Amino acid sequence: MQIKIDEDLILLGLKGKEKEEILSQMADKLFQCGYVKDSYKSAVIAREKVFATGLPTASYGVAIPHTDIVHVNEPTICMARFEQAVDFVIMGEETETISVKLAFMMAMKEQHAQLGVLQKLMAILQDQTALAYLAEEKNKRDIKSFMLDKLGIEEK
Amino acid sequence: MMDRQKIVLVACGTGIATSTVVGQKVETLLAANHVNAKVIQCKITEVGSYEEQADLLVTTTILSRAYKIPVVKAVNYLTNINPGKIDQEILDALK
């Protein structure tokens, strides 16, 4: 199943002081738009506590929260830019945190089919020009086109 | 006689996202270095069922216990910060 990029899932200036507030709002949006089941929210919050997803990049911290495929209806990625940076624990670390400004909440449906998109998403994290664009751009439609292009997704 | 094929476990929290990306990197690395090894992708909680026959665990998560096999942490494969160090650790562990 092809991953969709939905303008309604591009959240700019998302408010929240704690990562749970951020994750909760992103998961609610995914649920409202029908991409995930109602069980996704608690699952993604619980998983972030055990398996943190904060990643340091050359520009700023980026988180890639996600959870098991059983909670997902249709694969997509919800992007949120935070009003203010929020601390996330770094992936693979117990307590060390990173100040995160951007999150890609992934709703994944199959194990291997999305390899190409995942690899390209990781490439964005290594692309300072792309990160600078995503930190500033105000037009959601433009962000959507940018993401489709960067992820190599052709909209049907 | 050929060496026994080695088994490399690649694990993350869900077994779907970061382990997919890291698994691909490991497969490419092993092929480029002519290492006879098979990659098995799994959740970190499933490692126990493969541990006996595996030679190496490559993971992006925290380690909740000690393992009988060598462990290489591979988060930097995702951020591309000094990936050469991980390459070397994996190759050394499979010598």
UniProtKB/TrEMBL annotation, chain A:
* CDD domains named in the record: PTS_IIA_fru
Q: Which InterPro entries match?
A: PTrfase/Anion_transptr (IPR016152), PTS_EIIA_type-2_dom (IPR002178), PTS_SugarTrans_NitroReg (IPR051541)
Name of this chain's protein: PTS system IIA component, Gat family (TC 4.A.5)
Q: Which residues form the PTS EIIA type-2 domain?
A: 3-150
Q: Which organism is it from?
A: Propionispira arboris
Checking Pfam families in the record gives:
PTS_EIIA_2
Q: Which PROSITE patterns does this chain map to?
A: PTS_EIIA_TYPE_2
Automatic annotation (TrEMBL), chain B:
Question: Domain PTS EIIB type-2 spans what residues?
Answer: 6-95
| The entry's keywords | Transferase
Superkingdom, natural source:
Bacteria
Q: Which SUPFAM superfamilies match?
A: PTS system IIB component-like
Instruction: Name the CDD domains on file.
Output: PTS_IIB_galactitol
Give GO MF terms, alphabetically: protein-N(PI)-phosphohistidine-sugar phosphotransferase activity
Q: Which InterPro entries match?
A: PTS_EIIB-like_sf, PTS_EIIB_2, PTS_EIIB_2/3
Q: Does the keyword Iron apply?
A: no
- Which Pfam families does this one have? PTS_IIB
What are its GO biological-process terms?
A: phosphoenolpyruvate-dependent sugar phosphotransferase system
Q: What is the protein named?
A: PTS system IIB component, Gat family (TC 4.A.5)
The scientific name of the source species is: Propionispira arboris
